[in-house]
Design a protein that fits this description.
Blueprint: H1 9-20, H2 23-30, H3 34-48, E1 53-56, E2 59-62, H4 64-84, E3 96-102, H5 104-121, E4 125-131, H6 138-143, E5 148-151, H7 156-162, E6 168-176, E7 178-183, H8 195-200, E8 202-206, H9 215-222, E9 228-233, H10 236-244, E10 249-253, E11 266-269, E12 278-285, H11 286-289, H12 292-310, H13 317-325
Parallel strand pairs: 3-4, 3-5, 8-9, 8-10
Antiparallel strand pairs: 1-2, 5-12, 6-12, 7-10, 7-11
Helix pairs in contact: 1-2, 1-3, 1-4, 2-3, 5-12
Length: about 325
């Protein structure tokens, strides 16, 4: 093969297919027909002497040669795109609609600030919220169901950090801690929360799937303890309301207490055992990452995250009373 005779348009098709991991979606992104995309990939295979992409039940899987080639192709195309795109982006004239997936508590905390930014800076931007019912949002991003996912996705960000060839990008917005949450005047709200008392209490678990087992149960099992989960719910708002009006105890990220709508009726306590930190991550697809409007949206969420951390609850009422006694 001579580079002088290589049709460089084939590399643009290759990039789209690698990004989408699906010929049909790549065709839609390129405004081409699926047969035309298939023919382009066939020509590139013949030119490079490699299969490049192998069909699977879920789309296509790249060969090692394709995975090695793609970063260079992506970098070259990005450089060309930057050279021909306008140097400035006027967000006030942008017209875009974004589909975001967040848990109800995260949306309650961030959407008011995001809407104010849109009203002030980007009147042509619209937001469509999609329920986040999973800790694994990558399939939704790959299918193009959403443009951005924000939440706690255990293991996903860590996997993306060392995974090569993935079209999913991520950024950590916040790292915080879990705390035990209960109503004011709860029997366990007096004094230090002990492990025995915690395990004897009845518990509420926020579970998107309804499965009555979570990170807390895994941590307890490691020290030979367990708890009774009386109720599972799939919304943090519901969790706050129930706990504020019962003797159930729940575990929440500290930064989400305010979003329950019942923060004034709740107190939080440090857990009597160790839990990993809770991370708030932002995930998006490579196909969207190059959009100036999408970058504006991500930059806004970054700024909101920084501001939100300054307003986190630092002490519960019970903790303040304990410090005064001490």
């Amino acid at each position: 093969m001579s580079f002088l005779t290589l049709d460089l348009n084939l590399l643009r098709v290759f990039d789209a297919v690698m990004t989408e991991q699906n010929l049909t979606r790549a065709a839609g992104h390129l405004a081409m027909t699926q047969p035309a995309v298939s023919n382009a990939i066939k020509r590139l295979r013949e030119s490079l002497g490699d299969e490049l992409l192998i069909r699977t039940a879920y789309g296509v899987k790249p060969t090692p040669r394709a995975e090695a080639l793609w970063p260079s192709v992506r970098q070259a195309l990005a450089a060309l795109e930057a050279a021909v795109m306008p140097e400035t982006f006027d967000v006030s004239k942008a017209q875009a609609t974004f589909r975001l997936a967040m848990a109800d508590a995260t949306a309650a905390l961030w959407l008011p600030s995001l809407v104010r930014s849109i009203e002030k800076e980007a009147p042509g931007v619209n937001i469509r919220m999609v329920p986040l019912t999973t800790r694994e949002p990558r399939p939704m991003l790959l299918r193009g169901d959403i443009d951005l996912a924000v939440g706690f996705f255990p293991g996903v960000a860590a996997q993306l950090s060392y995974e090569t060839g993935s079209p999913i990008r991520h950024e950590r917005l916040y790292s915080g801690e879990y705390v035990a949450v209960m109503r004011k005047n709860h029997p366990l709200a007096q004094g230090k929360l002990e492990l025995d008392s915690y395990c004897k209490a009845d518990h509420l678990l926020v579970s998107f799937s309804g499965r009555a087992h979570g990170l807390v149960d895994e941590a307890l099992a490691q020290i030979g303890r367990e708890r009774r989960i009386l109720l599972t719910v799939n919304q943090f708002f519901t969790a706050g309301r129930v706990v504020a009006n019962s003797d159930l105890v729940t575990v929440l990220p500290k930064h989400l207490i305010a979003s329950t709508g019942a923060a004034d009726a709740l107190v939080w306590r440090e857990l009597p055992f160790q839990l990993p930190a809770v991370h708030l991550d932002m995930l998006w697809h490579e196909r969207d990452g190059r959009s100036p409007a999408h970058r504006w949206l991500r930059n806004n969420l970054e700024s909101m995250s920084a501001s939100a951390q300054k307003t986190l609850p630092q002490k519960s009422e019970t903790n303040e009373r304990m410090e005064k006694v001490a």
